[in-house]
């Protein structure tokens, strides 16, 4: 989700020289996005996900592994710029290996991979300065390392597991379509009607009107996907949609506060019109855990 602050520029107050600012503002929406770029990137990512789920659903695990690896690198760079020292090697190796271990070992593989990654990361950071060196800011850096490992590797690994149930790609369709509908509904309603800030100290541009738009669109999307892909009751679709809109919103807020603490606008520049990869994964990571909980309650069996 796009953040709410722009670094100011002495000539325009908008972060750009006057001539560049005027042209750029023509392309930006009221919500601050470069809308043509955002639509193009979103369509490309959507096509990749759809093609994967249609052609070879288990390829989803590989797509997730690649995305989490890039996300770890993105977070490492951002945190390094702010003076935090994360143990890159165990994190960037552990992210794909933990995710890919879902294919042969299922839940046990993901949990074991996460635990090993967390343990190695803690030791790696402890000995960052060698056996004779004095650790500096160890508790701070170890804590943020475990936060990142949980947020990205564990939650992402759970998202990869969703395709390995007896329902195949069904839970992934439910997750992705609900989050996309929520994002579109919230964006549209927020731009057109947004007047009442929802949590101004965390994300000033998020409004209650936008949240209502997210809720309506997310529930509509979930009713359709739960009925079509899971063959479950539309009433369950309403409940799932509401839960995923709430979880997606909370995921946005977590990332917004994370960026606010770091004093940055976007996690990176990998996705034009969106920011960094984590700016797109924020809603999905938390929501993947919710869908996993729903899968568990419904009693869907794992295929590995």
TrEMBL record:
Matching InterPro entries: PC_trans
Return the PANTHER family for the record: PHOSPHATIDATE CYTIDYLYLTRANSFERASE
Q: What is its main location?
A: membrane
Membrane-spanning residues: 35-54, 60-76, 109-127, 139-164, 170-190, 211-230, 236-254, 284-302
- Could you provide one GO biological process annotation from this protein's UniProt record? CDP-diacylglycerol biosynthetic process
Name of the molecule in the record: Phosphatidate cytidylyltransferase
User: What stretch or stretches form a coiled coil here?
Assistant: none
Single GO cellular component term: plasma membrane
Q: Where is the composition biased (Polar residues)?
A: 11-24
* Pathway participation: Phospholipid metabolism; CDP-diacylglycerol biosynthesis; CDP-diacylglycerol from sn-glycerol 3-phosphate: step 3/3; Lipid metabolism
Highest taxon of the source? Bacteria
Reactions this protein catalyses: a 1,2-diacyl-sn-glycero-3-phosphate + CTP + H(+) = a CDP-1,2-diacyl-sn-glycerol + diphosphate
Q: Report the locations given in the UniProt record.
A: Cell membrane
């Amino acid at each position: 989700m796009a953040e709410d602050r722009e670094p100011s520029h002495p000539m325009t107050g908008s972060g750009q020289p006057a001539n560049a600012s005027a042209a750029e503002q023509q392309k930006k929406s009221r919500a601050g996005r470069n809308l043509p770029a955002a639509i193009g990137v979103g369509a490309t990512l959507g096509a990749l996900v759809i093609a994967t789920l249609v052609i070879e659903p288990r390829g989803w695990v590989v797509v997730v592994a690649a995305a989490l690896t890039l996300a770890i690198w993105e977070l490492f760079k951002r945190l390094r710029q702010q003076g935090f020292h994360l143990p890159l090697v165990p994190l960037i190796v552990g992210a794909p290996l933990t995710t890919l271990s879902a294919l042969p070992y299922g839940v046990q593989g993901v949990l074991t991979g996460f635990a090993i990654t967390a343990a190695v990361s803690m030791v790696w950071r402890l000995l960052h300065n060698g056996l004779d060196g004095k650790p500096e800011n160890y508790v701070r850096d170890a804590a943020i390392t475990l936060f990142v490992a949980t947020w990205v590797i564990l939650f992402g690994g759970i998202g990869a597991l969703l395709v390995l149930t007896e329902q195949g790609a069904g839970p992934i369709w439910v997750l992705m379509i609900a989050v996309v509908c929520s994002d579109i509904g919230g964006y549209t309603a927020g731009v057109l009607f947004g007047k009442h800030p929802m949590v101004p100290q965390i994300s000033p541009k998020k409004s209650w009107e936008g949240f209502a738009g997210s809720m309506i669109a997310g529930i509509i999307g979930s009713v359709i996907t739960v009925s079509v892909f899971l063959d479950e009751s539309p009433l369950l679709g309403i409940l799932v949609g509401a839960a995923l809109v709430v979880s997606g919103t909370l995921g946005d807020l977590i990332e917004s506060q994370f960026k606010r603490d770091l004093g940055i606008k976007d996690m990176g520049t990998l996705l034009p019109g969106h920011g960094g990869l984590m700016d797109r994964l924020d809603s999905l990571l938390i929501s993947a855990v919710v869908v996993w909980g729903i899968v568990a309650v419904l009693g869907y069996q794992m295929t590995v």
